[in-house]
């Protein structure tokens, strides 16, 4: 069984793109060459690695096992290069980091700016994902560090406290629900679902979570308009156009007059956690970033 790094990287690209053709392009290989490499791996293992269909190709059970090992091996090679790069000019390395919406907008900008200022030869590949997707990616070795909500199952990952991040319901002081609540400071999410909401644009992980929570209650989350950023949402809510779910930090930071009500649902009283697969196995520069994130404000 002789797989080289090109074979492994090709298989990762095919699995992630769902297509041998796309995987070949990402690996800078001709399609016949890529197909031959996949057949060679399957013949060496005497087991099919891909299930081919009209819509593309996806790993079989054996293929998923290979994918996990391929990611581990390629990551180890990347770590080796990054560790050695500190002896040469240029970047020392790159950290792949996945975070939920609240972390990426409310807490990380200042923390990462300070860290990068003192680590000029390091780069951070930062992406927004749903917390459960982050857990899977970190467990699979597709990301070094994740920041997730404590509401999701962390599986076997190592986790560390990051920030408290409670969610609140916000509305204009003159909104009908505000008048209905009177002096009440706490309510259940289901009570708010009778009204229209202002949401976040795009495939926001934060927005998707609110929709899923409504679905679990057997209700529909009606979003009148989607805007980019918590600040824009706050302004629209202040106009009386609808309600919104916001992190308490974002709601307090805004200059608009808003009525904030705590949600009694367990999922709203959340905390953010840093997660890694194995702290000891992280490259040195990634461990430095982890240590910096773990420090309180």
From TrEMBL:
GO cellular component, one term: cytosol
A Pfam family per the record: LysR_substrate
Keywords: DNA-binding, Transcription, Transcription regulation
Domain HTH lysR-type: 3-60
GO MF annotation: an example: DNA-binding transcription factor activity
Family, as annotated: Belongs to the LysR transcriptional regulatory family.
Protein name from the UniProt record: LysR family transcriptional regulator
Organism: Duganella lactea
